[in-house]
């Protein structure tokens, strides 16, 4: 555990529901080639509006870096229970098993939640910033770094999560749907999240019509999703995507690593003036990221956390 924790920096700690598991199909999710900015920025903005989700390729992060971190993670999750528990409980950062967040949510998952300091996270944050800068250009925001500066800020409230879904072969044959859930459906509260997983499937997103789509895993790529804060900052133009992970119905465990790019605690989360049409009003009340976070930690994982912040 110590090796992993030293490599990853300080562990501080950083929540699932199930609905019908039917309607599962593999969708055509936008794939964005980051080596061509001109094409990429239009694709990204369209994907953020339609899905709140897309995959990026040619991102410049070496497989080696991701694989090393994955291997370190597996080493940690394979340690005896007692050893792992020395890094817990996750309040807010640390090791957690089955229990997710403070509201009684559970899933077939173990995880480590931590603050962000290591090389991998810095590399992934750069990808997130590059994407946010392309969004800023495409939306004609006042400055290119209007969004990226929030997650580059030294006070940025970002975090990093390693999830380990133990192998549960044959699970799906069981009738109890709840037991199929690794991490229950939810939206991410932050601005943007960057996910990378090994080759084990399970990740799904919810489309606008409510259908769940399985996203084929791809360890060479990153999956980005719009968080609640970016939905608000675009006054609802971008969608904070609902997603979940099914338990690993295989002999192999699923390992995912997710960077959550959040703004500083005192940052006002409000629609960016340059996205607003003349006479357009904010759909949301005024609040800071700290207000949102405090409120989020009182909710159940699957709750729609933004409704409290919508204008009547
Ligand atoms: C969802 C996104 C991130 O994983 C996370 C989660 C956090 C936790 O696991 O402690 C939360 C969940 C997440 C949203 C609502 C609250 C907080 C559990 C929960 C019930 C680290 C985050 O920032 O919000």
From TrEMBL:
Q: Which GO terms describe its biological process?
A: coumarin biosynthetic process; gibberellin catabolic process; response to light stimulus; response to molecule of fungal origin
Instruction: Write down the InterPro entries for this protein, in alphabetical order.
Output: DIOX_N, IPNS-like_FE2OG_OXY, IPNS-like_sf, Iron_ascorbate_oxido_reductase, Oxoglu/Fe-dep_dioxygenase_dom
What keywords would UniProt list here? Iron, Metal-binding, Oxidoreductase
- Signal peptide residues are none
- The residues covered by the Fe2OG dioxygenase domain are 155-263
Which Gene Ontology molecular-function terms are recorded?
Answer: gibberellin 2-beta-dioxygenase activity; metal ion binding
**Superkingdom, according to UniProt?**
Eukaryota
Family membership noted in the UniProt record: Belongs to the iron/ascorbate-dependent oxidoreductase family.
What is this protein identified as? Fe2OG dioxygenase domain-containing protein
State the organism named in the record.
Erythranthe guttata
What taxonomic lineage is listed for the species of origin? Eukaryota, Viridiplantae, Streptophyta, Embryophyta, Tracheophyta
